[in-house]
Amino acid sequence: MTGTLAALLASLTMTAPVAADEFPDRPMDLVVGFGTGGSADRMTRAMSNFLSEEMGVPVRVTNRPGAGTQVSANYILSRPDDGYTLYASTFAPYLTNTILTGGAEYAIDDFSFINFQWFDLDLIAANKDSGFEDLPSLLEEIRDNPGQVRASVVQGSAGHLMVRLLLEEAGIPQENLNLVTYNSGGEARSAVAGGQVHFTSISAEGSEGIREFLTPLAVINDERIDQWDAPPINEALEPMDLEVPVLQGSMRGFAVSSEMERQYPERFEALSEAIQNTLARKDVQDHLASNDIGGVWVGPERSNELMRENYEIFEQYAHLLN
Amino acid sequence: MIDLAAVEQGLALLFSSFAPWMVVVPGIVIGLIFGATPGLQISMAMAIFLPMTLYMDFVQAMLFLTAIFTGGSFGSGIPAILMNIPGTSSAIATAFDGYPMARQGKHNQALGVALASSVIGVLMGYLILFVMIQPLSFMVLKLGPAEMFAIILWGMTLIASLRGEQMLKGLMAGFVGMLVGTIGFNELGMARGTMGQTYLLDGVPVIPAMMGMFAASELFKLANKGYIVESEASRKVRIGEIFQGFKMAVTYPWVLIRGGLIGVFVGAVPGVGSSVSNLLSYVETQRRDEDPSSFGKGNPKGVVASESANSTSEAGSMATLLALGIPGGGATAVMLAAFAMHNITGGPQFIRQQTDVVYAIIFANFAQVFLLMVIGLLFIPLLANIVKVPMRYLIPSVLVLAVMGSFGLTGNMTGPATVLIFAVVGWLLRHYGYSVPAAVIGMLLGAMAEKSLLHSYQISGGDLAYVFERPVTMIILALLLVSLFGQRLVGWFRNRQRVASA
């Protein structure tokens, strides 16, 4: 209310220093695209108190789960574009998928990403007793014995697309592989741990518990990582003379509607600064680290770029996912 | 199997100070309240109180969360018995015989039976967990989609016995329920039956729909009655009768043990859990009984079967969480977040290296059982007073609770809208003699059955011979056929012999 009044006064006096816009002057909403307890929710709740300190107003966290984040995305776009509603979600691959396969009516450009703070990478791993020790021999088996190799993935995930891409690039017919698509990572992991399927392609985070049942074959990354002893995907494919795009597993962070950025660039700036300052604090970093939550600052420009790249790659191969 | 040194350390963890126990009683009470309130879920309770566990050490945090779990598993049976409203999907079968008992004025006994079965169920579950946590979790891993399909099919045979007025009407209600269950995205990422509505993309929210069908339709039916229990004399809350019910449960040891075994194994399966185990246990108990037709009319064995299975499921889902780090449902998913807060990753390594912690959690649950018994006995008289509330007050307050709870579940108006739409659907079904429970079970299990069938198709590449690679699937299917047609087959053979010897 006072905001509109101030704006009214400013417009009347025609001396409108935009900085006089007292933003924020009332509680803010963080809307999570998933239910309680998931990764996006944990990230949001871990950040909310610190953000509230930074912004000087209370911050409420509400969950609007459903339809692979389509429910929350529509909700964000239906809210006033005044900067008081922030969108927290796992944008890649979920937001991308709602547009490409979920029949959503918005476009990626309808959102403006403030920051991605948490990046996951995917892992391709075989069941320990399956006998597969490296990626090329696995691909050859799929090529030579159609219908014999089984794999589990999460439907529509980057890991799912990776498997399709690998077959595509290696010139192996997609139907040679019996691919089981789950809606939950837990079930996809149970399937490979129990030897129901020979291998899985899934986010590395969360696969820690079933480590003993797995032989890691490749990490979807440009370089090796400490947690899993496996070559980066393109290094693993070298003997086959293949190269695939390195798909980003998942990206979590904060966004607003792009309309909001257009109308209130200075508010967008304020939000972006608040998140940057929050992530720069040592106590915040310690808190995030102790909860296994990512907390990097890449900034709006890079975040929007990353999201566009992610969308373009998925768009290019969307036909493989159906 | 059992590491005695770790047992000692586990006991030391628990009894070296009073601190871990401070949270158990509040935990059980929270669980009871959330379980007993239609529309509030146990996983919701855990998520709300999760931030408090930040200030606890890991053992204390787990004690707190499992106490909520334990309280909730009994709590959800209370509205099922008193009002025919299962608090969660794990108490559906509790309502089948619990509610008729209450209508006959045996609400005290029914609650006593439910409490005893819950208490014994939790105890049994954690005993099994203590002896065989590793083998149990590995066994679950060996269950593939084909086995899951066979198990769920078994649960679905229950629809046939929930007939309503006629068998055909029961089956029709079940099939309509199944169709409703397939609305939304399936595991192939295809949206079906949404009619272009965004809020149907996730399908019909099962719990609000269930509450609408059971609760609202039941309450409409009772609207012209004064009270839930007709005779004033029976409306009393008698501690003696509660104890009577408590003893009654113990007189059916086989029903308890069967429920417990089904609960542990089915509860350990990710994504299936207690919502299927209570139904399976009920099916088997009814089928093996000398008088199957007495079920659904207030047979306490039905309550024992359901409550023992859903309480044992807790231990089953804890097995996969501790031994594999894989959450099987909403409650264990929240626990996984508590694991992360304390930098602990569930899995075989965790069980090997921190056996004392695992044992401490298990022993604490043995103690929780007795606390649940005491708190439950204190709570029941309080809750049983619902039968004294005149209908004209009860109906609006329960409906408001259900609608508010469903709003909390879906986070938007989809929940309340679902409750109200399905209240009408439930009333219509009942009015025309179609079985409401059959429709609910069709909805719940139909979606699961479709999922496991789809996964079986994917994993086998569409080759039916896959079934012959899976001995367990064949065993389950054989058992299913025997339990369905066993007696007829025996009779048929006897007839043939008689004809042959004549």
From TrEMBL, chain B:
Record's keyword annotation contains Membrane: yes
Superkingdom of this protein's organism: Bacteria
Keywords, in A-Z order: Membrane, Transmembrane, Transmembrane helix
Ranges annotated as spanning the membrane: 12-36, 48-69, 81-99, 111-133, 139-160, 167-185, 245-269, 321-345, 357-380, 400-429, 436-454, 474-493
Cross-referenced InterPro entries: DUF112_TM (IPR002823)
Positions of the DUF112 domain: 22-440
Pfam families xref list: TctA
Name assigned to this protein: DUF112 domain-containing protein
Source organism per UniProt: Billgrantia tianxiuensis
